[in-house]
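## retry 2 of 3
previous attempt timed out at serialization; input unchanged, resubmitting
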Amino acid sequence: MLVAYGPDQHTVIAGETPFSQLQQWSRNHQLHCPNCRGVVHIRGGAEKRTQVHFAHQKGECEWSTEAESIRHAQGKLVLAQWLRQQYPHAAISLEKRLPEPNRIADVFLEHANGQQWAIEFQCAPLDIEEWKMRHHAYRKAGIIDSWIIGNNRREKQEAFIEALLATNRELLFLDPLVSPPRIWLRWPITRQQAMERQQLPATERAAQSQNATMDGWVGRSGYGMTILGTLAEIQLDTQARLIHPTRVALEQRSTLLQAMSAATALDEQQLVTYLQPAINNTALRLFVIPLLHAYQLDPELARRYNYGRGLPGQPVRPGDQQRIEKACIWLRSLVRHGYTLEKLQLLTREFPFAGPYAAFAGYAEILLALAAQR
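## retry succeeded, writing output
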């Protein structure tokens, strides 16, 4: 255990109190179990290369967790510190004994408004019925339970992990033994979202892959996303749900793309919002927005001109010819701003092929191909 009562009956946390002081109290039998009030002794330390902790004489306490791993002990300390940084005004306790639901929470947090969270760091296998019992007991007591899994179980296919995923729609695996603590955040995505990701421009997909990858899922849940990062990047919202900026950006992007796919007409702001991560404001102002306005005036111009050149009995209209030539002159003129035709072609690859925006992307490709021929 990591928590004991000192000689003044105040809480003492292993690792946060000078080791020499803990040794003195231990020799004087002044350290006590917070559960059974029996005497405990200091164990571990740098010389023994193990986590500093408190221990009973073997078999003394039914609440004892003497067999916990170094990963589990270090994880509780790491998580407590992580929560203190996020919620400096909350009361945060390690190994808190809760009469209801008759549990010892690995880390317990009580907000000033009375809301209570139990953070459980699970490194050992757990029977699914046992997990359900603990989960329902916490919720019945009005406590939000949040489960974080040790990285040693990251590749395991276990029923309780799949149940946790089905309940919370997210999983966080933690390696507390490295500095900074490393995390793997996983959450399920639909088949449609997986297909949308595959249809993203190659440059955007490559940029996203630096932080997030699409992979197979634990068990039978289908597609999933995984973010590899550090614990400091994760925040908890008011319901103890996990927030990571990359995940937020990906989900916002997916929502935007779905809206664009279902749209009945082009929306300039929607297109700009979609393109801004990949195209800077100068390119948007000089190239994308003027091109969009031209397209909205006559969406069929490029197709009508291009097809007319190759159809017998349907010569190109003089007005179309003049407008295409004017458009090509404008496109070539952008080189003075640093935008060659080749660079503009790369920019058009970022245009979404979704709903009515796919036709606009085709329009841009035709015009640039025509400009390159002149």
